[in-house]
Every structure is written in structure tokens, then in C-alpha cells.
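A quick aside before the break. I want you to see a complete sequence-to-structure record at least once, exactly as it would be stored in a machine-readable document. Don't worry about memorizing anything.
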Amino acid sequence: MLQSFFLEVTKAEPRLQKCDEGVAFLKAALSLYGLSSVSYVAINIPKKGNQFLHCAYSNSAIRQKTTLAPLSVDGLRDLGLLQTSPVDWTASERLKIELKLRTPDGSQEVDERRAASFALSTLRGETAVFAAAIPEASANGDFLTSSVMTELRILGKYFHSHILRLNGHDTFDSLLISARELDCLKWTAAGKTAWEASRILGISERTVIFHLNAARKKLNCATTTQAVAKAVATQLISL
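That is the input. The structure line, written in C-alpha cells, reads:
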């Protein structure tokens, strides 16, 4: 789904490494969430020897290019793919066009709830985007719901950190928030005390406090209130 965008942004570099076999992790996400496609693009990942890696991974293919200088990401910005705010969960116009072109005659309307793309946090000066789409809505009206989008954002962040580690970058400071830590943040955001959250989650108050402290450190926040606000702002939890 993002392959054409990747080729457009990297068109100045003709040398392309490719494999027409998808990434196992993305294939698993495809199956788990009933998606029709899931894609990841990263531009300007620093490598040894003053080089930069540019890659596009999906459930069906792998594309990579290497340059001696960083590439402009204005193309991705112009295509509306570098948006991160909660209101930008719907597909960009270009993404909807891409989905439409996949229909037999190109005439079928594309429901904007079928696809979502979002920028991932920059960790080493790179630019990365994660996107997913589901098949045409089924009879019961299945769409990319807000809860699924939140989980996809977490998966995207995990996959992005993995790609950076493969290319020699320590991502320890961007450890993923665990499911239990998210639970504790969510109930705190709902106004519950640590004791009340412990009763709801079936764990001790001390354990809730431990998870909140761990989440605060992972989100690089000084207080739990800041951690909750950041988790909401980055769509890790919803109110």
C-alpha cells in the first residue's frame, strides 16, 4: 500500500534491492486483524559509512535503497502521510486513490474508515510511516475501529524500533508500553486512584503504582499526569 509512495520519494536513486516475499511480522498482523494490507516505510535511517537506508516493508514485499545523502521527505508530507494527530486517522486522499485503483475497474468508492496511515516517532533522525487497510466492509459493518487503530499504532512503533535495531541503533529508550501498563494508564485517565484501579484489574495497589512508574519512564515523563496526557495524545489510550 505504501510501496508506490516509497518509489516516488526515492526515485532519484535507481538501485533497488527487492524481495517479493512479505515480512512475517506484518503477515501475522494481517491475519490477526483481518486486514487486506499492512505497510511500513522508513526514509533516512542512518547507517555506518555515512549512508542512509530507505525501506518499504509490507505483508507481500520488501524494497530497500541506500544513498550517501539523506533524501527529502517533502513528498510524503505533500501526500498527507506524515500526520500524527487523532483527527488524522482517516486515509489521506492519495491512500484512498491507491485503494480505489485496486478495485477491478477503479470505479468503486473507498470508505475512509477502511484505511489509516500515521507517522511514527522519529528516534534517529529518520521518517517512518505505518499504514493498514481492511477489505470492503462486511455485512456486519467491520471497519478500522479506534481500538484497532490504537493497537496498530503500538505494533507500528514496535516494528519501527526493530528495524532501527537491525541497523545498529539502540532503541532501549523507546521500549514499548506493556498491555498492563496501558491498562493502568487508562484507568488513571478515567479518574481512578491506584487502589481503585487495582480492584478493577485484580492486582495489588503496589503493582499498579509499579506499572505507572514504568510507563512514566518509558514515556519520558516526570509525573503520572504527564504520562497519561502523552498516552492520550499519541493514541496509546483513549478516554
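Two observations worth writing down. The first strand starts at residue 17 and ends at 19. The CA atoms of residues 189 and 228 lie 6 Å apart. We'll return to this after the break.
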